[in-house]
């Protein structure tokens, strides 16, 4: 390939850089993410009022219920379709965490329960827990030292 | 009122994640990692607690609340038993979420088949 | 015989009948009627995605043998490859055949890579009948290169959709209506693009390099071919390739298309930028383009299979994505 061609590649590379629909994607993420949080809030209020749970318990049970929905919709094959529409709107809520675990487990089912499901469950979600714990350790230590 | 705030705050956090995703052309794993650590960072000075009070599920649903819960329970335990409490108490609040995720993921994976 | 820098001219390599087996999306695409065997779901009657891809390869081989009216015992060699680690599809399918086997990896350029090697064996007088084939499957590819298929991550518009298809063709030394008259071997071209979700543009420079070398070695220009087709540059890669040629004053617009854009209807089917995968070029070329040559729509075409030579590990090490493209000239004999 001669220099003229190399130059052409450098030029056209920049010219053809694809653009993402930033505004439209942001609106879709906002709507779906907001909706998921709204549904969670409704569930938590029901748990507090109808089942008389205290705030912490209601939160924990509410999260567990949302995790169930995330897993269930993943199993049905619907979550990835919602995710394609909503982007971060389905990745950021805790349902996205459930989806990442369930989809990895589901996919590896073909390798059996032990080598597949058990081994690969945290393939995508592992980073969240690792980063979370390390951040909590660092920031917790900072706060602890400042508190003394 | 709490319903509106949950919708708005939750939506905003997701919209923020989406902008970072699109502008920096990152993959989802960067976004979740970033938001978890941001959640941990904001709880260092109790800021995330204030957000939870005002926005309810709008603050507890996003993955950032995972980081916040980890710091929160770590510090809570550390206040009781000293520094080692950061290690012993860190998973107290998030235990339900993690356990539920593992258990549901397992059973759903047993029952269903991926559709591609 | 070698021609120019990176090409070979063949004087007695002919194409027999080819066969293509595909999954559901390809069946419902614009070329659905050109395929020999199609399935309504991605499992293709098998238990796992990988076994489904093996079923497609098996179907393509069986249909190819039947259409050419020959038994597997008359085949000198099968040259095949796919996108899976260790190219397991061909490895495991060939357990059932008494045919010498060469597994090759060229990512999505595997189809023409197989043609090049097979043609070399035939033109050199070593073999008389060689099967060249390749396959790809959307789920095995997503699983290996990206995320679990049910993961909710958002796929950008630039993503190319790995096709679920297998194509196998017979190369022979006895005259048929179609001749493989020459090939141009590609070099690895790294244009320093690093987005694994935009492979069409990452491979366009490789197609640019090989096609330009082909024109130079054969002393031809675009007008000498009825159609120039790339394997899977799809929407963004195609636009980039046209622009690249314009920069060196060659206009391919009126006779250039891409298999990834022919295999699917981008507007009706959810395939983002278009099709990709080894099976894409194979399905379109062996299913559709050969029949267009045979029904006299085209007389001479240039098929350029393009491959992105990456894996998730090396991309995570912040490496860029090199591509390669191999070209084959297929022409109809007679009027």
Describe the structure.
The complex is a heterotrimer of chains A (148), B (116) and C (335). Chain A is 80% helix and 0% strand. Chain A has 148 residues and is mainly alpha-helical. Chain A is extended. By secondary structure, chain B is mainly alpha-helical. Chain B has one domain. Chain C has 335 residues and is an alpha/beta fold. Chain C has helices at residues 24-27, 49-67, 88-93, 110-123, 138-145, 199-218, 234-247, 259-263, 278-294, 312-316, and strands at 2-3, 7-9, 14-22, 37-38, 77-81, 101-103, 129-136, 160-162, 165-172, 178-184, 227-230, 256-258, 274-276, 300-308, 323-332. Chain C is globular and about 50 Å long. The model of chain C has no long low-confidence stretch (mean pLDDT 96). The chains are: A mainly alpha (148), B mainly alpha (116), C alpha/beta (335). The interface between A and B is large, with 80 and 73 residues.
Q: How is this fold's topology laid out?
A:
The complex is a heterotrimer of chains A (148), B (116) and C (335).
Chain A: H1 3-15, H2 22-49, H3 55-76, H4 79-86, H5 88-91, H6 94-107, H7 113-120, H8 126-147
Helix pairs in contact in A: 2-3, 3-6, 6-7
Chain B: H1 2-23, H2 28-43, H3 47-55, H4 57-60, H5 64-81, H6 85-88, H7 95-111
Helix pairs in contact in B: 2-5
Chain C: E1 2-3, E2 7-9, E3 14-22, H1 24-27, E4 37-38, H2 49-67, E5 77-81, H3 88-93, E6 101-103, H4 110-123, E7 129-136, H5 138-145, E8 160-162, E9 165-172, E10 178-184, H6 199-218, E11 227-230, H7 234-247, E12 256-258, H8 259-263, E13 274-276, H9 278-294, E14 300-308, H10 312-316, E15 323-332
Parallel strand pairs in C: 3-4, 5-6, 5-7, 8-13, 11-12, 11-14
Antiparallel strand pairs in C: 1-2, 2-10, 3-9, 3-10, 7-9, 10-15, 14-15
Helix pairs in contact in C: 6-7
């Amino acid at each position: 390939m001669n220099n003229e061609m190399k130059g052409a590649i450098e030029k056209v590379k920049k010219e053809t850089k694809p653009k993402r629909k930033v505004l439209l994607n942001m609106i879709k993420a906002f709507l779906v993410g907001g909706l998921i949080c709204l549904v969670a809030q409704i569930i938590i209020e029901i748990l507090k009022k109808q089942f008389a749970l205290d705030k912490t318990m209601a939160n924990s049970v509410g999260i567990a219920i949302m995790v169930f929905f995330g897993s269930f919709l993943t199993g049905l094959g619907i979550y990835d379709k919602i995710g394609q529409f909503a982007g971060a709107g389905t990745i950021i809520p805790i349902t996205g965490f459930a989806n990442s675990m369930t989809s990895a487990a589901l996919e590896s089912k073909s390798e059996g329960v032990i080598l597949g499901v058990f081994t690969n469950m945290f393939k995508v979600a592992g980073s969240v827990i690792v980063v979370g714990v390390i951040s909590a350790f660092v920031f917790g230590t900072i706060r602890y030292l400042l508190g003394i | 009122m709490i319903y509106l705030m949950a919708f708005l705050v939750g939506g905003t956090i997701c919209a923020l994640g989406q902008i970072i995703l699109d502008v920096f052309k990152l993959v989802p794993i960067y976004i979740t990692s970033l938001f978890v650590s941001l959640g941990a960072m904001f709880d260092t000075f109790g800021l995330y607690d204030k957000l939870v009070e005002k926005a309810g599920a709008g603050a507890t649903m996003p993955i950032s609340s995972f980081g916040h819960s980890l710091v929160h329970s770590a510090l809570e335990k550390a206040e009781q038993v000293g520094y080692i409490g950061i290690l012993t108490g860190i998973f107290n609040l998030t235990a339900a979420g993690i356990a539920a995720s593992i258990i549901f993921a397992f059973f759903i994976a047993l029952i269903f088949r991926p559709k591609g | 015989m070698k021609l120019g820098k990176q090409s070979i001219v063949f004087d007695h390599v002919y194409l027999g009948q080819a066969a293509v087996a595909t999954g559901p999306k390809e069946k419902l695409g614009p070329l659905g009627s050109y395929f020999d065997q199609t399935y309504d779901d991605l499992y293709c009657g098998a238990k796992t995605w990988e076994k489904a891809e093996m079923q497609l390869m098996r179907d393509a081989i069986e249909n190819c043998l039947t259409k050419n009216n020959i038994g597997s015992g008359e085949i000198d060699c099968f040259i095949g490859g796919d996108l899976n680690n260790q190219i397991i599809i061909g490895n495991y399918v060939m357990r059932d055949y008494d045919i010498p086997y060469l597994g090759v990896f060229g990512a999505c350029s595997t189809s023409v890579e197989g043609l090049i090697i097979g043609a070399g064996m035939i033109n050199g007088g070593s073999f008389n009948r060689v099967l060249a084939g390749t396959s790809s499957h959307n789920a095995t590819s997503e699983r290996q290169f990206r995320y679990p298929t049910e993961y909710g991550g958002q796929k950008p518009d630039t993503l190319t959709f790995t096709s679920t298809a297998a194509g196998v063709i017979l190369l022979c030394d006895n005259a048929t209506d179609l001749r493989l008259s020459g090939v141009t071997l590609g070099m690895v071209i790294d244009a320093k693009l690093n987005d694994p979700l935009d492979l069409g543009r990452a491979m366009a420079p490789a197609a640019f390099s090989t096609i330009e070398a082909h024109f130079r070695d054969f002393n031809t220009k675009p007008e000498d071919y009825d159609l120039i087709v790339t394997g899977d540059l799809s929407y963004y890669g195609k636009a980039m390739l046209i622009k690249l040629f314009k920069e060196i004053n060659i206009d391919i617009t009126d006779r250039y298309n891409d298999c990834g854009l022919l295999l699917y209807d981008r507007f009706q089917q959810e395939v983002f930028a278009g099709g990709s995968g080894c099976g894409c070029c194979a399905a379109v070329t062996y299913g559709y383009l050969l029949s267009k040559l045979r029904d006299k729509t085209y007389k001479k075409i240039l098929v350029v299979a393009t491959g992105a030579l990456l894996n998730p590990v090396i991309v995570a090490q912040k490496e860029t994505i090199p591509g390669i493209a191999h070209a084959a000239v297929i022409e109809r004999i007679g009027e």
